[in-house]
Amino acid sequence: MSETLQATDVDTPEADEAPPVRSGSSEDLLVQEGDIAGDYLERLLDLLDYDGDIDLDVEAGRAIVSIDGGDDLEKLVGPRGTVLESLQELTRLAVQQETGVRSRLMLDIAGWRAGRRAELADLGKTTAEKVLASGEKVRLHPMTPFERKVVHDAVAAVAGVHSESEGEEPQRRVVVLPKP
Question: 82-114: string of b/e by CB count within 10 Å (b at 16+)?
C-alpha cells in the first residue's frame, strides 16, 4: 500500500504541472475549451442515459458545442431554453475549473438555439422596419442576453434605427428607436 501512496505522491505534482492550459493560439485554446466541454457533456448524457452526438466548433472567437440526436434532448432545452441556459452555465464552470479562465462557450441542444436565433433575427428586422415606418419606438418583451444580442445585431443591419437595452435582469428588454 505504501508503494501505491508513493506512486500517487509522485503523480500528483506532475498532474499539477501539466502544460499550461492557456498557451498556444487563441483558436487552439477555444478548441481545448470545446474538448473539455464535450467531455463534461458526454458524461452528463451518460448519467442521464440520453443519446446524443456532440459537435465542437469555433466561431466568432468562441467555442461552440452542440448536441444533436436523441428524442430526450428536448428535455435538456426546457421551456424557452431555461434548462439549456443553465446547462451552458454549468458547462462554462466545468471548463473554468479545468482551465482557470472564464469561458464564453455557447451550447446548443437539438438545434434549439439555432432555431431561436433565426426567429429573433426576423423579430429584430421586422421590428426595425416597423419603427422606421412609424417613427415610434417599440419595446420588446424581456429576453436573455443571448436573445438581446441577436435582436441588436438584426436591428443594426437596418439603416435609420438603433436599439438599446433597458431594465434589470430578468426583465431586461430591447427597445428599438428611430435614429435622431
Answer: ebbbebbeebbebbeebbeeebebbbbbbebbe
